[in-house]
Predict the structure.
Amino acid sequence: WMICTGIFKKNIFFSIRSKSVESAGANAEKIAHRTGGSGGGHGMMGAGRIPFEKAAGQEMFDFFVRIIRENWEIGDVESKKILSK
């Protein structure tokens, strides 16, 4: 699995890819639904968008990360930002 995220104009955008499991679109739809956004896809590719109010941006992103960790049963891992403002 590969999950990529980005924030642009009060939206969290995410993309999900899978090498062999064909449920990326279903996972994108499930994640978007839990966060009040929209998402979908098919087979090995999925994507979504999660809108947020500016004041609640960090809170929504933290919720998104928690959902990702729950969905794929990921424990605590150190995250690294590759780009900064």
Summary: The radius of gyration is 13 Å.
